[in-house]
């Protein structure tokens, strides 16, 4: 992480040059991310290089969410609080520029570390991600994320596991 910094999206960042190869994510960053930040719909964090702090190399979004206890695999429910809705943090989008393969891990570990820190102040039992496609699912599985059987594309990591990462 020495050459890089992960920081909140700001006016100094150039949102138009970013290309992760997925147009819906490029468009989100270019057109909607700032609005989301302003309206408190999502917090947006960007990965930049110290040598060119305006160029966005990667980004992810975080917001509060919840997962129904009945949506979790049965073997996990007895380890969860006995409430119908389990508090969680959603990593809604995560992507890196096509010119920077290999920084996906940096982004995800930064997002997980941030979730663990935040959950120390506002409790959340799970980290949830929206995986867009099979490749993304395999990427998240590598870090221990499990699929939510009843919600296609949604995966989760217990916060207790995240703390150990
Ligand atoms: C998913 C994404 C963030 C991964 O970024 P990346 O820079 O390729 O990831 P890294 O190279 O840091 O990979 C970290 C680890 O995950 C593995 N990995 C990455 N993509 C993978 C895939 N498609 N299948 C299996 N493993 C994968 C890598 O092999 C690496 O493991 P290793 O260190 O044991 O080799 C990137 O491909 C991307 O931005 N894709 C477009 C947007 C997207 O689909 N985002 C996810 C849903 S919002």
Q: How much is the average pLDDT?
A: 95
* Ligands, ions, cofactors: coenzyme A
**What portion of residues is helical?**
25-40%
Q: Which structural class matches the secondary elements?
A: alpha+beta
Tally of alpha and pi helices: 5
Side-by-side strand order of the widest sheet: 1-2-3-4-5-7-6
Kindly report the CATH topology. Aminopeptidase
Indicate the overall shape.
Answer: globular
- CATH homologous superfamily title: Gcn5-related N-acetyltransferase (GNAT)
Main beta-sheet strand count, sense and barrel state: 7 strands, mixed
Beta-strand segment tally: 7
Structure description:
The protein is 30% helix and 28% strand. It is of the alpha+beta class and 165 residues long. It has one domain: Aminopeptidase (3-Layer(aba) Sandwich). 32% of the residues are buried. Coenzyme A binds next to strand 4, helix 3 and helix 4.
State the main characteristics.
single chain, about 30% strand, Aminopeptidase, about 160 residues, alpha+beta, binds coenzyme A
Brief synopsis:
The mean pLDDT is 95.
Question: Which secondary structure elements does this structure contain, and how are they paired or packed?
Answer:
Blueprint: E1 4-8, H1 23-38, E2 43-49, E3 58-68, H2 74-77, E4 85-96, H3 104-119, E5 126-130, H4 134-141, E6 146-147, E7 154-158, H5 159-164
Parallel strand pairs: 4-5
Antiparallel strand pairs: 1-2, 2-3, 3-4, 5-7, 6-7
The protein binds coenzyme A.
Coenzyme A is lined by residues 20-22, 25, 93-96, 101-105, 131-133, 135-136, 138-139, 142.
